[in-house]
Amino acid sequence: MQNSQLDIEVLIIGGGLAGLTSAIHLTKMGRKVVVVEKNSYPKHKVCGEYISNEVLPYFNWLEVDVEALKPSKITQLQFSSESGRSITAKLPLGGFGVSRYTLDHALYLKALSQDCEILEDQVTEATFKDDYFEIHLLSGKILTAKVVLGGFGKRSNIDVKMNRNFLQKKSPWLAVKSHYKGNFSADIVGLHNFKGGYCGVSKVENNVINICYLANFKSFKKYRNITEFQQKIVFQNPHLKNILEKSTPIFEKPLTISQICFDKKENVENHILMLGDTAGLMHPLCGNGMAMAIHSAKLASEEAFKFLTGTVSRAEMENSYSRRWSKNFKKRLKYGRILGSILERSKLSEILTNLLTLFLFVLPVIIKKTHGKKINMTEI
């Protein structure tokens, strides 16, 4: 076995938000953890970059100092339809805005400080046999581990290797993200609808505005480039037109990802506990995918720790994680898909906005359906 390493307790595929959070959790508990991440840090990612305060008790337990990252403090949600009709509501728990560039790098440094090994490499295959995993890397290394956690994002070559079911369905979504300098209230996360998509706007650290939108690829491909699409389609919403026209891009060009799928995914496959987007993608309009990724890392880490200490069997670990994941996220994902299907249709979106304007109490109810409660730390 070439370059074999036989003493890994936990191998985490992907060093994104969920993967790094699990690495910090499990190394804090004294476990030997290796993270395999194909990219170097720090790195920008396509992401809404808003996090609900529900994660703060967990970050405090992990000794991750969010305040040191100088995040924006977000207390309100503003929603607008394609025509620009809008409504604003208070976020029950509130949240904060911080870029993935800054947050992921901080988590990376924290994991390293706790003796987590992080390999800049790529997993090409993960097989399970004789109660161990065999992990093949692009570099030629072969690693073995007792537990594998999957934090490899929305869509990966590992998904293809595993022939995961969601790959059989069409993935019609394209996401575009960039950072800007401009005037925008630091305490608001905006969710603005446009024909065939919706856009999130909020501030992150250093007074920077993050603008990230999801567009139907069928609609997008009619235009020559992102600039033309924004001017012809996104600008139809006057809120977005005003924000974008009065803001200056910081990136040389926007970041994009395609083939985004919101269909159901399995949270345990081939004995791998899936984290964050790898287990199920939260519609960006719900604005809480980052919190869900962090929370899923906690659940998986707790179950993996029980298995590694001999408290439960592998089957019990997998079943417990699957149950807890469904309990915490299944309904939130369902509501997200329902809201997404409404906002994809201009007329329904206008009707929804009009109803929300007339019945102001409904929007806070929708927010609660897509956001969680503060993470319970008594289970650790």
Separation of termini?
Answer: 37 Å
Q: Provide the CATH topology.
A: FAD/NAD(P)-binding domain
What Rg do the Cα atoms give?
A: 21 Å
3D shape? globular
The CATH homologous superfamily is named FAD/NAD(P)-binding domain
Number of strands: 17
Derived from helix and strand composition plus strand pairing, the structural class reads alpha/beta
Kindly estimate the percentage of residues that lie in beta strands according to DSSP: 25-35%
CATH class: Alpha Beta
Largest sheet: 9 strands, mixed
Tell me roughly what share of residues is in helical segments.
25-40%
Give a structural overview.
The protein is an alpha/beta fold. It is 35% helix and 29% strand. The chain has one domain (4-170, 261-379): FAD/NAD(P)-binding domain, CATH 3.50.50.60. It has helices at 17-28, 56-62, 100-113, 157-162, 217-220, 226-232, 238-245, 276-279, 289-308, 314-343, 346-358, 362-370; strands at 4-13, 33-37, 50-52, 72-80, 86-97, 117-120, 123-129, 132-137, 142-150, 173-181, 188-194, 197-203, 209-216, 248-249, 255-260, 268-269, 272-274. Strands 3, 4, 5, 10, 11, 12, 13, 14 and 15 form a nine-stranded mixed beta sheet that branches. Strands 1, 2, 6, 7, 8, 9, 16 and 17 form an eight-stranded mixed beta sheet that branches. The longest helix is centred in the last third of the chain and has 30 residues, at 314-343. It is globular and about 60 Å long.
